[in-house]
Fold this sequence. Notes:
Layout: H1 4-13, E1 23-24, H2 31-39, E2 51-59, E3 69-74, H3 81-88, E4 91-95, H4 98-103, H5 122-125, E5 129-133, H6 134-137, E6 144-146, E7 153-157, H7 159-168, E8 174-178, H8 180-184, H9 205-209, H10 224-234, E9 238-240, E10 247-249, H11 251-270, E11 274-275, E12 281-283, H12 284-287, H13 291-295, E13 302-307, E14 310-318, H14 323-333, E15 342-351, E16 366-376, H15 379-400, E17 406-409, E18 421-429, E19 434-445, H16 447-452, E20 455-457, E21 468-470, E22 472-479, H17 481-490, E23 507-511, H18 520-539, E24 544-546, H19 554-563, E25 568-572, H20 574-578, E26 581-586, E27 592-596, H21 600-626, E28 627-629, H22 636-641, E29 645-650, H23 654-669, E30 684-689, E31 714-719
Parallel strand pairs: 3-5, 5-8, 11-15, 23-24, 23-25, 28-29
Antiparallel strand pairs: 1-7, 2-3, 2-4, 6-7, 9-10, 12-14, 13-14, 15-16, 16-22, 17-18, 17-30, 18-19, 19-22, 20-21, 25-26, 26-27, 29-31, 30-31
Helix pairs in contact: 11-15
Amino acid sequence: MSDITALISKLSGLGLSNAATPVEHAPVDSVEQWAEALSTVSGLPAEYTLTKTLIFKPKQPKSEAMAPVVVIAKHDSPTNAKAIGAELKLKELRFANDDVLTDVFQTAKGSVSPFALANVPQESIGNVRVVVDKALLADSTGNIAFHPLTSSHTVFISAATLQSFVQSVEGLTHVTEMDFTADAGAVAKAEKKPSSGAAATADDDDVAAAVSRGGIDVSKEVDFPKWYQQVLTRSDMLEYYDVSGCYIVRPLAYFVWQQIQEFFDAGIRSLGVKNCYFPMFVSSKVLDREKEHIEGFAPEVAWVTRAGSTELAEPIAIRPTSETVMYPYFAKWVRSHRDLPLKVNQWCSVVRWEFKNPQPFLRTREFLWQEGHCAYMTEKEAMTEVYDVLTLYRRVYEELLAVPVIEGVKSQKEKFAGGVATTTVEGFIPATGRGIQGGTSHYLGQNFSKMFNIVVQDPEDSGADRPKLHVHQTSWGLSTRTIGVMVMIHGDDKGLVMPPRVAETQVIIVPCGLTVKHSDEDRRVVSDACLNVEARLRAVGVRAESDLRELYTPGQKFNHWEVRGVPIRLEIGPNDLAKDSVMTVRRDNSAKASVAMAGLETSIQLLLSTMQSDMLIKARKTLDERVKIVLEWKEFVPVLNSKCVALIPWCERDECEDQIKTRSSRDSLGDEPEDDKAPSMGAKSLCLPFKQPTNPPIVDGETKCIQCGENAKRYALFGRSY
């Protein structure tokens, strides 16, 4: 049930006696905000009860169907997860992730209510457990507040109507009433211990009550996946969509992508590359022409098989990448060596129907990217471009996102399908100890030109029957994965930490120090000063805003902008104006400093530049500390387990790479089965770095591969990865 009108109609049939139209107000993320929003609405009942609806997921064997637990309680009832689990005989209740909310309940954080039960598919509703707070059922106000499918509306119903609604959900059989007040004291709170990437057990009511707060209520080090989801959604970077694996990129994140576009587009134009656009649809005939290339994408290709009610005569694929889309036309456009080089790029989205665990920005079914495709007369020209583009990718990460990367070449096993060589920039996520591919630039050789007959006559041969030469090609791509990497590396327990160069708002100006003792004129003077500073900064190109909202305290504003990662906060109050100064607060390190109004523009520009540089220096220091040279196998897995990546002498054989992955996974897990939906515990080659260690150096014929004992050729970077 996704329509509010339909819900109200259903509730009316169950005894809803209040006004048929829900109350509309500002969207809210917490009970506190909800109470504040309702306080501004007229015509409400004199008394009403606020609520919370929590969705948990128990620890279960993979063979069992998921049994989510929906808890419906008064907002201040101590909903202890251990007590609930004990009552239901379920183990380790954890807050359900966003995929469960979206896929099972068709709702999202902040909008969860009992009414989401009506959205659960019939094949799943029998597995759902519902726990209702006895205190809620005993409510005497007759006006229990719930969100009717969206956090921007409230509906008031009686306890009897709530019971009738729950009973009306077809197929729902597991409903339990609990006295949370009595159960709260019966369960001792377990000591909280950090875990390595696993979700933290929801064993504390403070955590449960905080599930819908506007701030971040989980530590990055304790539960990284949940932290990442909260940072993205609560900062307004991203919203979950009703198609699993697809996400809405909100303006805050899209601005980052636009900055990357502008920077990279200028770079490739200086190389002579021109932008174009090709259709997203690919015929199966064209897709099948390059078997080796498409084999790597085959499981992820999405197909259009019907238009309306009519079956298509031939299924049409949605591009997973565009080599097979573009190259038939390269063959048409390239007729002579004078048509070379051909250099094009397109900014577009691609679809790869990932069936593995989707992660926002990292592994999604549709994502934004750029893909460049070029054709050259010679291998030397093509390889020059491969490295030029890779340099641009490195600069995107380091100069815009303040993220250090390692440049290198992929192993033969990890290179682009159908290509000759793949160069890469590899990132590293310290919180999880995993590497992540940042961007790749491929030398395709003549593989595709032979397949698609992209040829020119040999310009060096003047004979009548000049031989035809296949061109040398490149392709290269960078995606919105860049945004996810930036968030993972710089974010902290307060939320985003935005590098100034890509921050939509670089400076937020907040009026402070005003109390009930100050007059309206005092407030006007401070507000005018904020607007004046904003105008001065905007005039010199600084992206500044003033937060003059009257219904929020300075502390609430600080939290709001900290979650969104705004680089610099300026605080302006009567005392500051008396000193002709402002107070600056850096988001990355919370450093405060008083800065004179005179020359403020220059001071802020310098501070932004310093912060950008400091963020890269800090991240590079962490990366350098986490890249370990490993010379014996016995040290390999312990290094991975310490959240590091390993540089090892390696023989570069495919079979050895397979053995490293299998052996490192086995050594890590022992007899415990690996979760096929989680990132692999086995290590794989990330790249063969261009910058090779020299202490100790690889000695030809003497240095051995640490896994198989064959002669090592180079140091290779191995690690667990996304």
